Amino acid sequence: ADKIVTFFTHRYGKIQGVAKGARRLKSKFGASLEPITHINLIYFGKENTNLYKINSCDILEPFSKCKDDLDKLKRVLFLCDLINSTLHEQDVNLKVFELLLKTLHIFTEIEGLERLDTAMDIFSLRFLSAVGFAPKLTHCVYCNKNPSYDYRGSNGIGFHVVKGGIVCGDCLPASEDSIKTNSGIINFIKKSISINPSNLDRLILSREMERDLHKIIRLYIYAHIDREIKSYDFLN
Ligand SMILES: [Zn+2]
C-alpha cells in the first residue's frame, strides 16, 4: 500500500520518498501526492540517501485548473517530464523551481491552445537556458557575424537546432539543416529568456508565429535533451 513519489523541492532539488499507506483508500495523504500539486513537504532520512520517508504533505496550491483541462494537463505534465528527465537527484535549481511555479500559475489563468503552447515554449526556453543549453542568439553559428542589422536582408535569418543558434542571411542558403525563420521569432526567443519572470504572462504571439516558434523549440529539445521524454508522443 506504499507509494514511491518523486518531488521537486526548492531546497534540495529532485528527491524521492516513500509514502507509507498512500495507496489505501483512506490515506492521510489524500490528494496531496497527485502530480502538479504544490505542497509543504515534511520528510526525513539520512543525508544522501536515495529514498526518504514522507511524513506529511500539506497542499499549498492544488493547481486544479491545470489538472481538469486535458490540454493544460498534457502540457504541464510534459514540463514536469522535461525537468524530471534533465535534472539529477538533489540538483538544486531554485531558478527552475520558481519558473515552474510561475508557469503553473500562468497555465491556470490562460485559455486557448496557442497561448498554452506559447507558455510551454517559453518555459522550455528558460529551462534549457537555466540548465546550460541557452541558444546562441547574437552571432551566427557558422561565421560568428552579428547579423542583428541584417534580419530583413533578402535571405532573412535561420535557426540551427543542433548547433543551437542563429544562422545569418549569408550562411543560410548553404545550410541545409537550418530552419528559416524571421527577426520577430528570434526577438521573441531573446525576450522570453531575458524578461523578468513577473512579466512572463505578457508575452503573446500570433497564431502563425506560435506555430513557427513551436516547431523550433520542439526540435531544439529533441536535439539537446538526450533522454526520451515519455509525454512527448502524447502531446503531438
Ligand atoms: Zn553566418
Structural features, described:
This protein has 7 helices and 7 strands, in the order E-E-E-E-H-H-H-H-E-E-E-H-H-H. The chain has 236 residues and is of the alpha+beta class. The protein folds into 2 domains: 3-61, Nucleic acid-binding proteins (OB fold (Dihydrolipoamide Acetyltransferase, E2P)); 65-134 and 185-235, de novo design (two linked rop proteins) (Up-down Bundle). The strands form 2 sheets. The chain has a 4-stranded mixed β-sheet. Strands 6-5-7 form a 3-stranded antiparallel β-sheet. Helix 2 (70-86) runs parallel beside helix 4 (113-130), helix 3 (94-109) packs antiparallel against helix 4 and helix 4 runs parallel beside helix 6. The chain is elongated and about 65 Å long. The model has no long low-confidence stretch (mean pLDDT 90). Bound molecules: zinc ion. Zinc ion binds at residues 140, 142-143, 145, 168, 170-171.
